[in-house]
Each structure stands twice: as C-alpha cells, then as structure tokens.
User: Fold this.
Amino acid sequence: MEGLPRDREEAVRADAEDPLAPYRSLFHFVEGAPIYLDGNSLGRQPRQTAGAMEALLGQWRGELVGGWDHWMELPTLAGDRVGQLVGAKPGQVVVSDSTTVNLYKLAAAAVEARPGRDIILGDANDFPTVRYVLQGLAARTGYRLRLLATDPVEGPGTKEIARELADDVALVCLSAVNYRSGAILDLRAVTEAAHQAGALVLFDLSHAAGAVPVDLDGSGADLAVGCGYKYLNGGPGAPAWLYVRADLQPSLRQPIWGWFGQEDQFGMGPVYNPVHGIGRFLTGTPDVVGITAVNAGIEPLLAASLPALWAKTRRLVGLLGSRSEELLVRSYEGFGS
Ligand SMILES: Cc1ncc(COP(=O)(O)O)c(C=O)c1O
Assistant:
C-alpha cells in the first residue's frame, strides 16, 4: 500500500496529522493497557454512553410508565441511525432482539415468501449461530439446508454461490464479512445472482456494520441483521438490528407475532394484524436500556464517517502487515546466520 509510514517517527507524525485523532477522545481508554484488537467481539465504551444512560434513568425516575412517550419509537429511531451506517434509507431498520433471534425471524419470513422452493443455501464455515439457526429452521419446516464447502479464510466466492443457485433455492443466507479472516463478500454480486434465480438474500452484517462501508440499498439486498455490541459499541449483550428492504416489507410475515408488531397495539384486539412498515418485525417490549446504549454507541461512528474510518483501517492494517513481514524476514535471516 502506497504512502505507509516507514518507521516509528513517520508513524508518530501520521498520528499527529490524522484528522480522525480527536475522535479517540470520544471513548474511554485505560492508560497503559495493551492495544485492543477485540472490537469484533465487544466495542469500547463511548464516553457519551454514561450520559445517555443517566438521562434514561432520569426519565424512568421522574416519569415512570409515562416515560414510554419517549421510548415507544426508540427501536425505529435508533434503527434509522444504524441505517445511516449500512446504507439504508429510513424506515427499513429496527433495533431489536438478538442477532440470532433476528436471523430466525427474517429467514423464516423469507422462506415462507418463496413457496415451491425448499433449499436454504448457507456457508459451512459461517459463524455457528448462523448455521444453527438455519439448521433449526430447516428441521422445523422440512426445508433442506445446503451448506457450501467454502474456504474458511477466503469465504464463499460469488461464482461458487452462483453455481448452487437454481429454481429450488428459496433463500441464500451468508455473512457479509468472514468472522475469522475478515474476507468481504460482494453483496451486490451475490444479491444479483440470487435474484436471477428467484431466491431472496439475508446477510449477517455483524462483522461489517460500523467497520466497513456497506450500501445495503445500493446492493439491492433483501434482508440483513447485525450485532449491537461489536463495532456499534452498544455494550455487552446490547440488542441487535435488522433490515428489511422497504418494498419487500408488506409481503413478509415474521414468525413471532408479538404485540409490538401489532396494528393498533393498545386496541388489544383479538387477532394479530401486523403494522405496515418495518415495525412489523418487532416482537415484544423493546429493550429500552440496551437500545439507548446502542444509540449512544454509534454516535462516534456517525460523527467520524465510515469511509474515513475505513480508509484509516486499511492504512493501519497495511502498516501492521508490512511491519510484521519485515520483522519476520529479519528474524528468519537472523535465524539462518
Ligand atoms: C456473524 C455473527 N452472527 C451473530 C453473532 C452473535 O449473535 P448473538 O448476538 O445473537 O449471540 C456473532 C457473534 O460473534 C457473529 O459473529
């Protein structure tokens, strides 16, 4: 990669000139702690999170159940903000439940929307919860799960996926970024291939959202889910999010019929009749505490902008790669002499 710092002095200078440097102070750091490379598991705590939680506690303290006036729309308001990170226009994302539960909700809705087809296509090396959800769905519904024997590092390639696509495939469900290696799937190409075969696509963006620029609307993707506690910095066990393309929403029915997806919710009517729009993918009472933390967690990402963060990620990873290579070669040469 061009223009990488060649030594420590140049690296320190690049840090000093880095326009993203001030954003570091938006997070808590423990002085002297080792460099943290586990944001793919649990993101750092933004400084703003404590204030957002304190404000929520104040609403609860002061307004008790009346606080729901502030909280009812939170899943969709926070969802729209997550949407900004993944290229989704408003009205297509909600923050709710866990990634696992959202995967199940959307995968079940998708296969039901493709009657006459009985194959679900996945990746044999995908993150376990993705495979297990698909296995469980197949076991309950009689669908057949076909797992691509992919390279665990490279991840599935578009051609490999396209070869498996035929008129019996209902759903293609894959991770957008490989959880082991970071390999990036071409969302647009996979979506085009799946759509040509008449299948729907569901992408797990847990390792993509907040880390790499994603254009869900531009890719034509049907469905997506992702974690709230990794790069979105929502804290341990934070709720996840889900995306359903706007034009697809009216034709999809998710399997968990809860009262938060119900039209005229407080009419307490006898029959489930889901709301129009993304709200129909909600289930029960939203995790207001968790969504508040996700909402605060994504603030630094929105402020810094994903393209700028991605450019820096590439430089840092490039630097790490070239320095490691140099050191390995040097120690190998030393070993040989
Ligand atoms: C691709 C992927 N999906 C889902 C999850 C986790 O799902 P949940 O938050 O439901 O445990 C992870 C966790 O690392 C993951 O890597």
